[in-house]
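Kindly review these tokens for lecture notes.

. . .
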Amino acid sequence: MGRRDRDSHDDADAEAVARAGHGVEVGEVSTVARPLAGPLRLVVFWIGVVTAVVHIYLNTFGTMSELRVAALHFGLFGLLCALIYPLRPVAGRAARRWVLGIDVVLGLLCLVTVGYLFLYEDAFHARGMAFDGWDWAMSLLALGLAMEFARRSSGWLIPVLIIIAMTYATLWGPWVSGVFHFAGLSGEVMMMRAYLTGDGLFGPIARISYSYVTMFILFGAFLVRSGAGDFIIDLARCAAGRFVGGPGLVAVFGSGLMGSISGSAVANTMSTGIITIPLMKRAGYRPRFAAGVEAAASTGGQIMPPIMGAGAFIMANYTLVPYVEIVALSVLPAIIYFLSVGAFVRVEAIRLGLSAEAPEDGKSFGQVIREGWHFLLPIAVLVGLLIQGFTPTYAAGLSMGAVVVASWLSKAPMGPRAVLEALAEGARIAATMAILLVAVGVVVAVIATTGIGNTFSQMISAWAGGQLWVLLILVALASLVLGMGLPVTAAYAVLAPLSAPALNDLMLEGHILQALVDGTVPQTVAMTLSALLPDLGGVLGEPMTQAQAQAVWARVSALPGDFTAGLAGQLVDPVTVSMTLLGAHLIIFWLSQDSNVTPPVCLTAFAAGAIAGTRPLPTGMAAWKIAKGLYIVPVLFAYTPLVTGTWPDQVEVFVFACFGVYAFAGLFQGCLESPLRWYERLGSGAAAALMLWPHGAFPVHLSGLVLLAVLVAVTWRRRRRTMADSAPAT
């Protein structure tokens, strides 16, 4: 992006970028990285190259066991983290050398724990999985190093959670009364699960990290190194630059495309914001609004297929829904979100009286495509391989090769040096997320082992009183608090097993009630319930009112829990059951994004504010207002068939939601095609509410669309009259 930076930014902007980037890493957390220079820079570079090559080989051609691959993943990225993030920042050359020496030792010890597992894993199983002194030492060392590197890269929250989780399972769980009582496990069992089995450090979360997450981050690094970033910005300018609010729409479009390959909100802000924020400021947007738009748009990169901030891979593991299906079902919701941000951009431009302007470079869409069409080839290869049924990791590996081959069709082909740089940069970017996910695996393992996830779900479900909207608020608050100290993907990985069961149960209950209302209860289920509850025999299988259905389900729900759970799976078809679970996880994943743009801790907004030269908290408030789609879409997941319905149902929800978010922006900004009067503003809010109303009320949705059309027509005519009155007389 160097060429474009020089064309469109002054020295002040560059200084702001430097201030924003200092201490901000790709994992959406504030860190202090060690300045890399001289021999240390070369060492980190080549370790990164080796790490990337090892992961590419093991994910495409390797046959090593999953446990050993996960351990090697931890060892290599642990060494990188030790060299990139110092034990603590110090001043003075001598002190820095001491700290570097300690970090080198810790990094090598990380490899020692991996080597021990490789050498003595078989011996451990041969002696009946009995712990000896060396097993204790190595497991404690591995856990301690994971906690330390997580602390360096993301702060104290993950280490504190690990300590709380491990001590709960071994020490104070038996002393807790009530629903959170746990009989307890020995320290030997917990350390064995954390280090020498397929749980804990090297469990499912680590396997997702070394495969899907790392491979797709490397793929994104190859795309960026090939020059795809310039092509994306050029494409965004051509697609959106000529409309009203063009520079802001460029930010929305460009950040969405960049986010689809980077999967990091802060990195997205730093790479596109240095271009789009100055463009918006020069066009007439207020600096705070410009920074808010960039932060909101970059946050959308986390929910934009195919990478989705690595969350789609963890979601596939939790829900057993194929990754390709998750990505496909996430396209329409992502479009709704970006349209909502674009709506804020457009109505603000109209409110400020900004006009459409041609892009500065004057490139046509055809010219941009002719110069950069080859950047689309790797994406086509990736999508084609996924559709053909290849695993995502294998598809990502082949797509990296496609990036290199495609670059040979450009003016700047990737040679050996560029390939090595892409490998090293990809490994550096992946290091933070890799260590975090390995460490989070311990917390997730304790949640599964102790059963506290189901207990927590039952508790928040009781707090919600059976009301889905209350439960959504509770999950949103929990995700915001957890997201203050964690990257959103890690926050989702921790929060999902705690709250997804409660969300899934309440959402599935809605489908069950609908089956009772429609009278579509299977005959076998009706016979079983009639035997247990004879007074229901003449009711089941016949259409009934909503009140009757609720009364019937209340009776059925009073039966033993395991029986009721199995019965629910028979009342609703398996596809709906699976999609409802996916919808619950999508709600949690989307709500986990709000910490990027919600004060007091909103690092994405802070980074954008540093580029724009605005104060952090006001910038965060602006980003929070613009990113309202993060709350609207989860409501659609919960109350509409946006995920669980047929294609016609999904398209209907999508179309009305697109117009609904536009009306919503009018309510918040007080403008549609011209500034709104107070009663028109209320009308815009009413139109938004009607179009976003739960599915099944088409006349209600249509009335909202008609109301919006009237408001748009009125404000458009008012705008035309204003323009005519202000035009100079001829």
